[in-house]
Specification:
This protein is an alpha/beta fold and 256 residues long. It has helices at 16-29, 47-53, 80-83, 95-100, 105-117, 130-134, 138-149, 155-158, 179-197, 199-204, 218-222, 239-255; strands at 4-9, 36-41, 60-63, 89-92, 121-126, 162-165, 206-210, 229-232. Strand 7, helix 11 (218-222) and strand 8 form a beta-alpha-beta unit. Helix 1 (16-29) runs parallel beside helix 12 (239-255) and helix 7 (138-149) packs parallel to helix 9. It starts with a strand and ends with a helix. The structure holds 2-phosphoglycolic acid.
Length: 256
Amino acid sequence: MKHYTIVGNWKMHQTPDQAVRLVKKLQAQAKPHTHVTSVICPPFLSLPYVEKEVQKDLFKLGAQNMHEQDEGAFTGEISGLMLTGMADYVIVGHSERRQHEHETDKRIAKKVAAALRHDITPILCVGEKLSDRQENHARRVVVDQLHGGLSQITSEEVGKLIVAYEPVWAIGSGESATPDQVEPIVNVIRQTIEEMFGEQASGSLEILYGGSVNPDNIKSFLALKHINGALVGGASLNYEQFIAMIETAADLSNAR
Ligand code: PGA
């Protein structure tokens, strides 16, 4: 059976009270599925509140970012050490952080390595901007981001990593990419991982699609051979929609 990972990125939404209410609503409807891992990524501030509420057989927790150092004079930052025991996953290199916080591949590589050091699964986000796609550079951008972001890990560690392909132009736009646009890039991702870390590492890597995923279009992405799940932003804040997407993944995994 194919395994799917469905990740909800709440971004900068939900106060702690709202976050706890949302988790309760999700859990009232969620069912455990052997072949689907559902992950929610609340803002840092809500993480400990959500952690008290969450049923680990239904949802795993993720952070939306982390610092690459364990501690130090880094005002406003949260480290992997602090997330240990609370978050099983961490989103690294999201395009909003690359764009607004000027995160570079070099920095992202350090975060990926730090997450793995703390036994937290990094979800490395890669994806081209609209201008890259228009200039036919989508593949090159994604390959460069993989080479940069994974420069500090070994082939043994690739098995603990997730890569999310998120074309920047599809994020929060309501205009998802089409499966025809996603498939060639996802193939390039798997091929690049194979070149960098070998066939076994590439075969075991989970690749997610992200960018305006919703209950109506998720099936078309999950049905792609090399896609193992979705990274969902806006639609993950609606509990009925998020549950519907998890159930679609469960149905598909049972069918395979
Ligand atoms: P979106 O966000 O689903 O709202 O497009 C996806 C993401 O940024 O991870």
